[in-house]
Amino acid sequence: MQAKQTVRAAVASAVVGILAAGNLFAATLDAVKEKGYVNAGVSGKVIGFSAPDAKGVWAGMDVDFARAVAAAIFDDPEKARFTPVAFKEAFTALQSGEIDILARNTTWTYSRDTKLGLEFVGTLFYDGQGFLVHNKLGVKSALELDGASICTQSGTTTELNLSDYFASKGMTFKPVVYESADEATVIYDSGRCDVYTTDASALAARRAILANPKDHTILPEIISKEPLGPAVRQGDQQWSDIVRWTLFALITAEELGITSANVDEMRNSANPSVQRFLGTSEDMGQFMGLTADWAYRIVKHVGNYAEMYNRNVGPDTAIGLARGVNALWTDGGLMYAPPVR
Amino acid sequence: MQSGRGKEARGAPAGTERGSLFNDARVRAVIAQVVVLLLLVGAAAYFSYNAYQNLSRAGITTGFGFLSQPAGFDVSQSLIAYSSKSTYADALLVGILNTLLVSVLGIIAATILGFFLGVVRLSPNWLVSRMAAAYTEIIRNIPLLLQILFWYLAILTPLPGPRQALQLNGLLFLCNRGLLLPRPLPAEGFTATALTLLLVVLLCLALIFWSRRHQQRTGQRFPAYWVSLGLLLVLPPAVFLLTGSPLSWEVPRLSGFNFAGGITVLPELLALWLALSLYTATFIGEYVRSGIMAVDKGQLEAAHALGHRPWMTYRLVVIPQAMRVVTPPLISQYLTLVKNSSLAVVIGYPDLVHVFAGTALNQSGQAVEIIAITMAVYLLISLLISLVMNWYNKKVALRGL
């Protein structure tokens, strides 16, 4: 199946490359308004980021982010559609115009940003790569993993970090690489590998679906920086502004103490920052081709960053991640947005 | 025919108006071919240029420069020295060699098993022939993908871990990390044995060739096969012992998480090889059966009448004639096997598609170039196999027909 997907992606990109008539990379906003929805490419399988919940409704950080973009444009979060894309075809799907946003817990790296014709708009979740091992091995640290067989997913930053980490520590490992994270997890569970490695947030989600989650431990070492963020096609400044400021709006709302519950009364706030942000004093949306209340719509329908975090990956969810580095800068975290003015 | 008509046209009676070049069928044919060729080349050039333009406008890096950049990822099985510091070109070579490895192993096993199946299915022994028929019908009617997954997920990965590995005398180990074999370590002086072996093999080939011609010329038979076997069994071992047995074995031993030393045959390779061989063998078996049945009954009767024993009848009369029928479909089975090996991707065997069109594609992001290279490599491998097999086909084909 995966092989077919690769071919499909490659053919799609080739066809686009060969036949595209030129207006493909122009006004995405107009195209989105015309078709009436935002098409977001998501993983579809990572609980907490993008997966259908028990009722079959899409849920997760990436999903909520796409809904926020749809809310800003259409005043309706349901105008976001989700296309599960395999990791292998993710970039090509975006390049070829099949999707409008890639929100697929994807790491922002230099080469992806510069070489692929993509633009990462910011970081939605600061992550790092970790290791999952079976308790019976008695391993307490990643430094004890010399010679281990390690399962991971192909084509990821995970795969590259793994090589770098072991080379830098003078250790060896045996890579066992699969096309999909699902398969890598199943095979790890079968005992073919000693270790499973991916982003720490996903490790927690993956551990939850193993046969005996309690028999497995996530090692303390985090070996990489994985800033996960949404990406758009390069060359449409208006569209990348909309997506970037949707992210900043989520963070700004948390900074200003605006939530989906109090956003209506906050419209009467005397605070000039809040007034500007919610569009009651100035029309800030016009410069992106949106309405004055674009940020109000986002908060009203999706909430602020904290609400989104706690709903999907926070301590009260199955993933159970503390805010950590994803807290606001005022709380010692890395979440920071330029001022809306 | 065309050239004939062309000559007629030119040989039109003198004095009449000289015909336009377009009246010459041969010239017309050449012009048509040139035009079609130009159109094809033009279209290819146009599409390539257009693709290049669009990709660069979209800010996507193009070109083949990435091949000399470090790949940055490791591969589980490599026949050449490879590390994460190697280049994308090295990764391509690793992928090609791994594809070739499983293809060659698969072709050998499928051919042997296929011939066996084909012959056995025609056996007068009811039980034996029914068993071969049942095997053929079951295996060839189950999709190959399922068979690969069966061998991998149902047979090989559920094996015990390295610490509880199944073992044979502490030399061979089978576990979910693969099949571990001792590795031969030739010491100084082993070259003498190797050279002797090579010389003896050449000598035996020459002997067999000479004995054939000798028999054709004089009718006398020389037991070349028996003499060859004798030479092979005596000379190299003698040299080996005389030089002081310069060969040791590195036995795999448990170290940390895995076995260290020895040769590891990955479970991914085993599963793919088993599935490809067993599946393709059923088709080859059917072709062999049809080839044998295509040999005229009179040929068999004639051979029996001449006093040939069943084995000699098969070897001298049936098989050579059957091969004429078997070879062409055999070629396409070999080609199919090579291409089917790309299903490796579902179990993570590092073949060309997995390593290059998978990992390398995503790490470099250069989809168009990488898919083009991958297709070109498969095309090249297939053309090479066709070339060799067509040469063989010409050799066994009936002459003068």
Give a quick set of tags describing it.
heterodimer; A: 341 residues; alpha/beta; D-Maltodextrin-Binding Protein, domain 2; 2 domains; five-stranded mixed beta sheet; 39% helix; disordered N terminus; B: 401 residues; alpha+beta; MetI-like fold; two-stranded antiparallel sheet; 12 helices
How does this structure look, described?
The complex is a heterodimer of chains A (341) and B (401). Chain A contains 13 helices and 14 strands. With 341 residues, chain A is α/β, with parallel strands linked by helices. Chain A folds into 2 domains: 229 residues, 3-Layer(aba) Sandwich (D-Maltodextrin-Binding Protein, domain 2), CATH 3.40.190.10; 95 residues, 3-Layer(aba) Sandwich (D-Maltodextrin-Binding Protein, domain 2), CATH 3.40.190.10. In chain A, the strands form 5 sheets. A 5-stranded mixed beta sheet of chain A has the order 10-9-11-8-12, sandwiched between helices. In chain A, strands 4-1-5 form a 3-stranded parallel beta sheet. A two-stranded antiparallel sheet of chain A has the order 2-3. In chain A, a hairpin with a 5-residue loop joins strand 2 and strand 3. With 401 residues, chain B is of the alpha+beta class. Among the domains of chain B are: 56 residues, no CATH class; 176 residues, MetI-like (MetI-like fold, Orthogonal Bundle). Helix content of chain B is 65%, strand content 7%. Chain B has a 4-stranded antiparallel beta sheet. In chain B, strands 4-5 form a two-stranded antiparallel ribbon. In chain B, strands 6-7 form a two-stranded antiparallel sheet. In chain B, strand 6 and strand 7 form a beta hairpin. Chain B is globular and about 75 Å long. The N terminus of chain B is likely disordered. The interface between A and B is large, with 59 and 51 residues.
